Amino acid sequence: MNSIFYITTPIYYVNDDPHIGHAYTTILADVLSRYHRNAGEDTFFLTGLDEHGQKVQQAASDRGVAPQRHCDEMAPRFIKLWEKLHISNDDFIRTTEGRHKRVVQDILQRVYDGGDIYEDEYEGLYSVSEERFITEKEAESGEFRDIRELKEKNYFFRMGSYQQALIDHIKSNPKFIQPEHRKNEILGFLKQPLNDLCISRPKSRLNWGIELPFDSGYVTYVWFDALINYITAPGFGSDEVSFKKWWPASYHLIGKDILTTHAVYWPTMLMSAGIELPTSIFAHGWWLIGESKMSKSLGNVINPMNLIDDYGVDPVRYFLMREMVLGQDASFTLESFIKRYNSDLANDFGNLLSRVTTLVNKNFAGILPNPGELTQFELVIKSSAENLGEFVNDKIRSMCINEAIEETLQFIRSINRYMEHQAPWKLVQEDKKSAGRVLYTAAEALRISAVLLSPVMPNRTADLFDTLNHDSLSLKWGGLQPGNKLKQHKPLFPRIELIMEKKDTEQQKNFITFDDFKKVELKTAEIIKAEKVDGADRLLKIQLKVDADTRQIVAGIAEYYNPETLIGKKVVLVANLKPAKIRGVESQGMLLAASDENSLTLVGLDDDDFPSGVNVS
Ligand code: MSP
Hints:
Helix 12 packs across helix 13, helix 14 crosses helix 16 and helix 18 runs antiparallel to helix 19. Among the domains are: about 160 residues, Isoleucyl-tRNA Synthetase, Domain 1, CATH 1.10.730; about 90 residues, CATH 2.40.50.140. The relative contact order is 0.08. The strands form 7 sheets. A 6-stranded parallel β-sheet has the order 3-2-1-12-13-7, sandwiched between helices. Strands 16, 17, 18, 19, 22 and 25 form a 6-stranded antiparallel β-sheet that branches. A 4-stranded antiparallel β-sheet has the order 5-4-6-8. It is α/β, with parallel strands linked by helices. The chain is flat. The site of 5'-O-[(L-methionyl)-sulphamoyl]adenosine has 19 residues, from strand 1, helix 1, helix 8 and strand 12.
């Protein structure tokens, strides 16, 4: 086992508004770092910002400020988010820092001196939005914006000459590109001849970048500059001892869209500079919002700050880690977030702690009882707890975080079942000693689960340790001391009620326009007949008078209203709902009703004598 663990996130574009995609990679790196730290490994976790290039220069000039000032003003948005998300990074790098500029120039000079950079006149298609020359084929793909014909003298890196060396490296290091399908994607890409890489931009066009050490008329291409951050931070060229300790990185975590830059540009750059390659590049999938890509134009970009404000940091971290299978895309919806929260965190995890502490407080004066001699039930739990530790460790090391979490939750569920089965609330009357054994066992199982979940939810698990009055991270059964005084606690994960869902739906700007609303034709109506629908307990068939017309509708209100009591009621009808057959009965509209889980009431009129068939708006 490697006792040094160095993990990086991509450095994010300083201009971007931080969104759930940035938050995800950073939380993932944080969770992995915390697991490795807990396992006693020396861990270095790096994140930061990508601050050069055309887009930053443009955004600064649009705001009428100098680019450096623009970056300085934008950077805190990320720093604040990481603080709020309890990200435990060891360094935060910004590419405009002096320490980074020096390393970029050093690498450029080495590569140049080694004969791998040459000057050439290039004529071709250039995508301003991507800040690079593109091929005809790429231009035709429609994925690139702001395409121009450009003829320019530039500097090129002989990337093509490392093609075979790269293929060999990928093949002989199966973990170099993960997951497997991404490795195959890169090997497929490398079947075509690999072009050299244009690594300069003339200052006449762009000056917000790091100057080439061998030609002051040019700045460095933003990707050539950005990738180097991974060696700047651990001390390349400035602190050889530190650099030797951390490099090569254990993992570069990235999203699938930046695979080529990491798995092709970066290793060939390192080969040319004579530096060892990172151990693994791991590309995760994308968060989709429902079924769609997240994008500004769709207006579905999820701002993690809002989620944290509403639901807390740990539940957001939990959801993101539990829901994404690493390597595949995952879907974010508020419904699935709330469902997962209520079932896993409120019902299974939080509830178990409340049950245990309530019973210990009530029957043992808040003092954790002695387990005494274990029966077969406790022995099974003890051994599953021990196996669970190993299972989680293996899953984390093979990047199956969702499985590690799910297995821990399964364990918690099994403890809830054990509680149901043993019923210590009854047992305490007849056999207090056994009740004590059950409560100790459940508390110890909770402690071990919290140790295993602590990298994902560092705050709420700390609350749990505080309640149990014990904070050892040991995974050995029996860590809790009988005789410990348990502390009072607020519910660990209070259920999220529906009212919050509504608030959030509004936050997602799920508004309809007035024109949308006008499409709904609402009319007053009078109920003139109501009867049960045969064979359907919940349905009533209702005849309505709507001015001179009669309408028939089917409504699911039989549990709340006796048909006879409805006659003569004035109600509100959705008059232009497409007719439908419900249980074979024609329904020509719908009645408005207010309902929650336990009750329902029809929307009526304030004035009983008001005529039917009048528009409601
Ligand atoms: N600046 C470059 C990275 C340079 S690293 C030397 C960059 N920055 S970025 O801010 O645009 O994106 C950073 C990361 O966010 C990428 O890994 C990208 O995959 C990830 N995500 C952007 N949208 C995402 C989702 N919707 N879901 C998950 N991750 C996504 O690229």
